[in-house]
Amino acid sequence: MSRTASPTAQDFVPFATAALDFHRALNVPGGPLVTTRAELDALHAHLVSLHGLLDAHAARTGRLVPIEGDQLSAVRTRIWQAADHVHAAYHAAPRPGSGEVPDREACQAGLPEGAPELTICQRHQRTARLVRRRTTPADLHAPFTGLVRH
Questions:
Q1: pTM (2 decimals)?
Q2: 56-100 residue pLDDT tens
Q3: Main-chain phi, psi angles of 28, to 5 degrees
């Protein structure tokens, strides 16, 4: 069994990184700007996708190189924490049109605002179930999430 990825496998991560840099340069001007709910939803989707990629790497790598797997697991946890904060920012952002700010607890009901706004909450809840299977509450609230092996 190989310990490294195939050198012929297409690596799309650099393209995703370049796309984010390009997006920032084009769409986020200098100076004060309120982030839209649509932007927060897109960022949340990106973080959840990155969480899934890191989860896959942590699971596979941890079986072969435990120290590296521990570090990837720590990164996966930090990415989830970032996604959780973006989700909270989404709910703190005013609704388009009315300017009303909904309660975060409305997300727990599953349909806080109706389509298409509910997609961020559905995505968040699906990923939260995975997070609860892979991490402990202590991992999620610890100031340092990586294990140190010697």
A1: 0.79
A2: 999 999 999 999 999 999 999 999 999 999 998 888 888 777 777
A3: -120, 95
Residue with tokens 């990923």: 127
* 99 Cβ contact partners less than 8 Å away, ≥ 6 residues apart: none
Terminal Cα distance for the chain, rounded: 25
Tokens of 39: 């932007």
Q: Is 144 exposed, middle or buried (0-12, 13-18, 19+ CB in 10 A)?
A: exposed
| Alpha carbon distance 29, 88 (integer Å) | 23
C-alpha span between 55 and 60 (Å, rounded): 9
Euclidean distance between CA atoms 13 and 31, whole angstroms: 29
For the record, the structure tokens of 95 come out as: 């609704």
Question: In terms of C-beta density within 10 A (0-12 exposed, 13-18 middle, 19 or more buried), how is residue 45 classed?
Answer: middle
How many C-beta atoms surround the C-beta of residue 143 within 10 A? 4
